[in-house]
Amino acid sequence: MGDIAFTKTFVQHYAFIMKTLKKSHESDTMSNRIVHISVQLFSNEELARQVTEECQLLDIMVTVLLYMMESCLIKSELQDEENSLHVVVNCGEALLKNNTYWPLVSDFINILSHQSVAKKFLEDHGLLVTWMNFVSFFQGMNLNKRELNEHVEFESQTYYAAFAAELEACAQPMWGLLSHCKVRETQEYTRNVVRYCLEALQDWFDAINFVDEPAPNQVTFHLPLHRYFAMFLSKAVKCQELDLDTILPDQEMLMKLMIHPLQIQASLSEIHSNMWVRNGLQIKGQAMTYVQSHFCNSMIDPDIYLLQVCASRLDPDYFISSVFERFKVVDLLTMASQHQNTVLDSEHERSMLEGALTFLVLLLSLRLHLGMTDDEILRAEMVAQLCMNDRTHSSLLDLIPENPNPKSGIIPGSLSFESVLSAVADFKAPVFEPGGSMQQGMYTPKAEVWDKEFDPVMVILRTVYRRDVQSAMDRYTAFLKQSGKFPGNPWPPYKKRTPLHPSYRGLIKLLHCKTLHIVLFTLLYKILMDHQNLSEHVLCMVLYLIELGLENSPEQESDEEESAGGQERCHDSWFPGSNLVSNMRHFINYVRVRVPETAPEVKREPPASTSSDGLASSQSSRRKSLQRENSGTAQVFSLVAERRKKFQEIINRNTSEANQVVRPKTSMKWSAPGATPQLTTAILEVKESILSLLIKLHHKLSGKQNSYYPPWLDDVDVLIHPEIPRYAHGDGMTAVERILLKAAVQSRLNKRIIEEICRKVTPPVPPKKISSAEKKTLDKEERRQKARERQQKLLAEFASRQKSFMETAMDVESPDADIAMEVATSEQHVSEAIYDCVICGQSGPSTEDRPTGLVVLLQASSVLGQCRNSSEPRRLPTTEEEQIYPWDTCAALHDVRLTTLQRYFKDSSCLQAVSIGWEGGVYVQTCGHTLHIDCHKSYMESLRNDQVLQGFSVDKGEFTCPLCRQFANSVLPCYPGNNMERSVWQSHSNKCMQDLVQEVEDLQEQLGTFPVSISSETNLSKEMESVMKDIKSTTQKKYTDYSKTPGSPDNDFLFMYSVARTNLELELVHRGGNLCSGGASTAGKRSCLNQLFHVLAMHMRLYSIDSAYNPWRKLTQPSQDKNSELVSEELPEVPVLYRDVSSLLLIQILTMPQPLHREHFTCIIKVLFTLLYTQALAALSVKCSAEDRMAWKESGALKKNTSSGEKSWEVLLGHVISELSKGKIYEEEETEELPVVNPDSVECYLQQFCLPFLRITSLLQHHLFGGDLPSCQEDEEFAVLASCLGLLPSFQSAHQFTSASCLDWPVPAFDMISQWCSELASFAGRHPDQVKALLIQEPKWDLPRLLQLPENYNTIFQYYHRKTCSVCTKVPKDPAVCLVCGTFVCLKGLCCKQQSYCECVLHSQNCGAGTGIFLLINASVIIIIRGHRFCLWGSVYLDAHGEEDRDLRRGKPLYICKERYKVLEQQWVSHTFDHINKRWGPHYNGL
Q: In the Cβ-directed half-sphere of 734, how many Cα atoms lie within 13 Å?
């Protein structure tokens, strides 16, 4: 009971509340609060009913609304500006602009949803009058006046407020009321509404002083009274079985009612013809909003329905002439070839004529309110939307016009949205396009829908943009081509319509009235004669109207009545009757036309003696004297006069008013202004009928004489079953054939006449002599045609070249892509590489004075550091228990190792025993294009001066490749000369190992001997230095400084060879972690490693290695003195067995003079392989159990003296064990053991241990010397690579192959091994606990992966959106999580800012050396941070319909899309974010 009391009080204060609302500035918050109260009070039907009865709630509401609007009324300027008494709301007022009225209206709608309350409203006449009064405030608001001279100064954007107001304050209450008028028992309500609606309309017409002509050049899109009237009529016929005629007003009122909706249709056409262009863009906005999906069924649909009702009840000739007059094309509808249009510029004539015909087609074809069921309507709407474009599920929901209860998913009717959708459309799963554009899950029309249901009329009605109609036609064309139904350019198909509801049968009269037939005849004639301002679209619509007429003919005419004398009966008028079927065959001989005196028709020449064929209109004009004799001449036809006459007739019929007043003719605008040339009358000989014109048009369209042959002459069945599939799709010729067939089916006489016309149309013509002048023009035409074809071909070729270039340039994964960089790899004899500069276009070698460079992108990368030694990828934590600790990553382990080494050994030596760059390494990639470095500098200058907002910063050296627009930030100089020693396979040279070893040592001694001597500063060396600076500055200082003494040269040395290591390792990762697939390097010529090595080598050779410490000696010469190291105080050097062999390889190669000889390269590898093998044996020996060790030691000792002892792992392992046993190495407690030690598993272990080195070396060899990498099975990778590197003298078959057979010891193996092991033994003496830990273990890194994400997004959301940040312990406003390491961060959070860097940016630097991948928890999207830029990547979570839900607005359950996540991972690993994602912006450290 308390409820009622409160509600009553609330109601009594209602008016007061509204005043507060009106005054309040914060109307938004205020209105929201009120609605929260009122919704709860008024949603309860029982309560609402009681309050309505006891407190006059409805009266209060309507009155308050009325008062509210009265505060912002202005005088209407519609029609009669001076004398108008009508007032409308002013849309510029805050009240409307800010939707202040909304809480009130919302209550009103809410309360009308209760049947009992609505019933009260619909029965209360006083209320209805007040309500119609309220609605009339919106009638004619926001009047647009066409600007004819100046462009409007200020484009007001108030129009949207007007549309919103009509929708919310008028249409929604209307839909609410309509929902209670569903059954026969509610007829009374409809009568009431219609009655008061008409009264309000009559008052409105009187107030604006309206007679019969709308004022020119003005339009309002807001006619809510008309729409109330229309919608209640529609409901009455559809649901209440009311007889339409009992509620329709008299003819005169109908004539008035049709004027303004028709004015809107004509204005739409004017707006699309750019006649309102001076009113600014907003007028286009209005035209679009009027048909837009949220408004169309409350605006354009009722308007067209109302026009259909008027047309079905008014005189058809009057209606048709009104249409053409409103569209301002009356003057164009003349048979004369020239005419004067007093109200329209000729440039707009064509599109206005198209508009008028299209409108007629819409009017006569649409059945939305004329007989379609709700299910049929839903299906038609859906098909129309899908034909324009493939649609996502949510956009379809949005585009289908909704009835009052929006988005329920169940649209009124028995069928739901989903079941219709599955019937008409196929789901295309979200795929991924190269180039990175994310596709959403889309629905596309099924084939049978294109075949049977594509309805261009519905598409035209529903398109907001005209281009969508074209898009639908293009898709239709593509479907027909693909399914082989029609190869050419099809015309819109003709679609059968739902039968008309009997109440609207009168609409058919429009198709069967003389006025329309005259218009159709005239247009066909004009098109045949090539008059100006006609188009294929006009013809298409004309044919559509004829076909509609044939499909909807009144009762069948009997052929017999028509005697041959029929034609004589009607000499004064155009056509004998009104039936299109019989009028089609009626021949019209002469037409009297009014033409300007300048027209060709008015030639004063005597009648030609020959009978002219009636095609050349200029010849066939007769002189004035002939007029009287010619009784068969048709009259001049004037639509305007026709309409006046009819109007007067109709007015006089309504006798009640006829005797009071003869209405004045308001419109004087049809009397031609004096400036126009004098019109004179001429007579045209026409001698055509609609049928004959159609047949001639067929010939014209086909470009052949006699192209039309009546199909029934071959196959009589055609007449019995005229629905032939071959006529369903096609072009204009098909349409003509279809129409002629239908005409013949409907009447035997037509059939006979068609046959006759075909017989005599063109007797065989004797070949005509072509005059030389004509020949010239013909030749010219042909030549032009050929030129055009040539041009087309060129363009097509160009396009395809560009396309293929783009594909290769943008494609990340194509290993064999061939890019324009012509580095001569294949020609053996070429001495110098030739480069093309993409800026100046010249080709030539790179020289020291004018070096060429590769366009490269340098970026710091920590991808390698993310490798882990387990194949199980880590998951994103979604509970408190799951945490990620970064101890097992590659970067962490390398870090620990370096720190441990630095504790026990000499710093400079430590810095050569490892590689860095696992984190923050510099990765270099190129698009393969080259340019002169001086050209590049001027290019950068021009970019700097060009202030266009680019997505990159020129000051940081960033630019895009001038050719392929790929992002880049440096230029890598190309080393002059051929860069590749060609004697590829002379590796098996005759020199013995010892000589080679000596040569390598000598070469290393001559430091500084670089072919380009560094002392002389050339341009090339300057460039090399500057690129080295770029490389250094690419990564952060903490990733380059590892030495204990800051700034020591050892640091630089380590950094430089590590850059090479990083790039080799990354290429290996891109190949999937092994080299089994072989082939050229990733994107063969797009690799820049060769150039990179030259730059690095040049800098590395600036640092001398003290020869005493040169690792090469340690590897190749047994040392003489054993005790020197004990004396020295400082820390010892790193034992050789603790050194990383791949690092040693790069140090050796890069400190050699370039270009390197192949034999020296092989020699270095052989030496390093012996060390690597020994390391493998040492690691293995530590893993064995003590008994196994004893066993191996003994079995090795037995075989030690055999010939192949140095190449047997058993012997070597035994030796290693015995040597290492001398120290305290094996004394520690047992480590994890190998389960079984049989020879096979040992061999396998050794191969796995050596493989990573072999892979890196093979890649290096491939880049330095060319030559393809062999492909192989995984199990033979070791053997294949070993033989490729020249370690295997000859490749043996796999079964008897052992890894040890690759060994080639430069000095006796046992001496070497003993020496290396003794270093360890002496170290073990001092630090027994560390010996094993530092032994290099078998490296088994898995490929880098992002974190695994859970299937359902909700899992992530629930855990993270309430999680507190570990730094500031608050729940972040924008939480984000790093997908590389799982760290939880505050996006844009000021709480976690450090030195002006926000947390995401900071984390991207620490975790990815500048690259961060973050999932934004509250938006489900991923952002990428790359250095100083960021971009929105998209979402990897999609809903059941394959759509993203950015910002989680729709709230649908989201599921992981594995393909997208794969792509994200792929872009991360391949470092291609910069190239694939286009929309980058600066983040100013604020993320």
A: 18
pLDDT over 60 (residue 656) = no
Compute the distance between CA of residue 588 and CA of residue 580 in angstroms, rounded to an integer: 14
Beta-carbon-side half-sphere exposure of residue 1357 (alpha carbons within 13 Å)? 17
Print the SS3 string covering 271-306: HHCCCCHHHCHHHHHHHHHHHCCCCHHHCHHHHHHH
The Cα 1332–Cα 1325 span in angstroms is 13
Chain length of the chain: 1487
Reduce the DSSP state of residue 1346 to 3 states and report it: coil
Indicate whether 74 pLDDT > 50: yes
| Whether pLDDT at 144 is above 90 | yes
Cα gap 222→264, rounded to integer Å: 9
Q: How far is it, in rounded angstroms, from Cα 1044 to Cα 1047?
A: 9
Strand ranges (E), 113-236: 144-145, 218-219
- For residues 1428 and 956, the answer to whether their CB atoms sit within 8 Å is yes
Question: How does pLDDT run across 959-973, given as a tens digit for each residue?
Answer: 999 888 889 999 999
Q: What is the DSSP string of 444-494?
A: EE-HHIIIII--HHHHHHH-SSHHHHHHHHHHHHHHHHHTTS--S-PPPPP
What confidence score (pLDDT) does residue 560 get?
A: 37
Got the DSSP string for 1201-1251? TSTTGGG-HHHHHHHHHHHHHTTTSTTSPP----S---HHHHHHHHHHHHH
Instruction: Determine the Cα angle at 218 with ends 213 and 224, to 5°.
Output: 85
Phi, psi of 380 (to 5 degrees): -65, -40
Kindly give, in sequence order, each residue whose CB lies less than 8 Å from that of residue 448, ignoring residues fewer than 6 positions away: none
Spatial CA neighbour of 642 closest among 310, 254, 318? 318
The secondary structure of 951-992, three-state, reads: CCCHHHCCEECCCCCCEECEEEECCCCCCCCCCCCCCCCCCC
In the block, residue with structure tokens 């990564």: 1035
Nearest C-alpha neighbor of 190 from the set 243, 267, 149: 243
Residue 745 tokens read as 């089916």
Confidence of residue 540 (pLDDT cuts 50, 70, 90): very high
CA distance 318 to 311: 9
pTM listed for this prediction: 0.77
Which residues, at least 6 apart from 497, have a Cβ–Cβ distance to it below 8 Å? 365, 367, 551
Neighbouring residues of 1432: CB distance < 8 A, sequence distance ≥ 6: 1421, 1422, 1423, 1479
| Predicted confidence (pLDDT) per residue in 331-340, tens digit | 888 888 888 8
**Which of 1403, 1462, 1463 lies closest to 1430 in space, CA to CA?**
1403
Burial 51-90 (b: 16+ CB within 10 A, else e): bbeebebbebbbbbbeebbeebeeebbbbbeeebebbbbb
Question: Do the beta carbons of residue 198 and residue 253 sit within 8 Å?
Answer: yes
Distance between CA atoms of 1400 and 525, rounded to whole angstroms? 72
**Residues β-bridged to residue 856:** 926, 970
- The amino acid sitting at 455 is D
Strand 633-634 to 588-596 pairing:
parallel
Compute φ and ψ for 912, nearest 5 degrees: -110, 5
CA 74 to chain centre: 46
Q: Which of 854-863, 879-888, 1412-1421 has the lowest mean pLDDT?
A: 879-888
Separation of CA 207 from chain center: 51
Q: In what order do the strands lie in the sheet with 1422-1426?
A: 1384-1386, 1375-1378, 1411-1416, 1422-1426, 1429-1434, 1481-1482
How many other C-beta atoms lie within 10 A of the C-beta of residue 779?
10
pLDDT digits 0-9 by tens, 820-853: 333 333 333 445 778 889 998 888 888 888 899 9
Give me the mean pLDDT over the 373-398 stretch. 92
C-alpha closest to that of 887 among 869, 899, 900: 869
CA pair distance 667, 948, nearest whole angstrom:
55
Residues 6+ apart with CB under 8 A from 228: 132, 135, 170, 174, 193, 197
Rounded Cα–Cα distance for residues 389 and 402 (Å): 20
